[in-house]
Fold this sequence. Notes:
Blueprint lengths: L2 H27 L3 H14 L2 H17 L1 E6 L2 E6 L31 E5 L5 E7 L7 E8 L7 E8 L2 E11 L8 E10 L8 E8 L7 E6 L5
Antiparallel strand pairs: 1-2, 3-4, 4-5, 5-6, 7-8, 8-9, 9-10
Amino acid sequence: MNSKYLLGIFTTVLMLIAISINSESLADETPDVAQLEKSHKQALESGDMVTAKKLESEIMNACKESVYETIFEEENIKLMNHVPDVHGDWLSTDKSIYEGPVGQTNSYDRQIDMKMSDDNIMFVAVNVGPTEYSNGGVKVYYSSDYGKSWTRILNLGSFRYISNISLLVESRLNLNPDSTRAIVFYTSSSNSDFDDSDLNFTTIRRDGGGFPVGNNCFTCSGK
């Protein structure tokens, strides 16, 4: 057999082996986007913004490589490869603020509200759904460590039905923690269909003191 022919076959085999090894190497180097997203979230929660920024850049680069074109109804559409979320929506390190029923109505969608004060205190207000003890209620929590731990400062139960809430946080002087107040506006009614609803408010200091409740206005049915 011709030596040049054998040399050509040998060279071709070597090239195929090199291509196979290179393909396996590239596959090993493909970034795990799901793992990058998990690490990015953990970095944000721990306050490591340098690592979070680096991971964000890696995620963007990985996503760019996963974009491809397809034709759907004669139009070119950019699609992103779907990365299944094997870790779910929550991490084991995520903090639970409130566990229980949350108010839900067809017409009003704000049942939870969160605000941060000027002195970096986080507040969360929850419209508590009906229980065996009350038809509704409002709970307010605060966190002074950016959500790592939470303290309940208000537990307002009501025999009336509550349909919607809105939270404000105001501070007269950041150097005086007692001047920071959480103000919750909410609508309530004696009926589950929320006819004859009243607009009410309650306000409380972050230390749990100074707790007035009031009524802003009320309307007649159909108004």
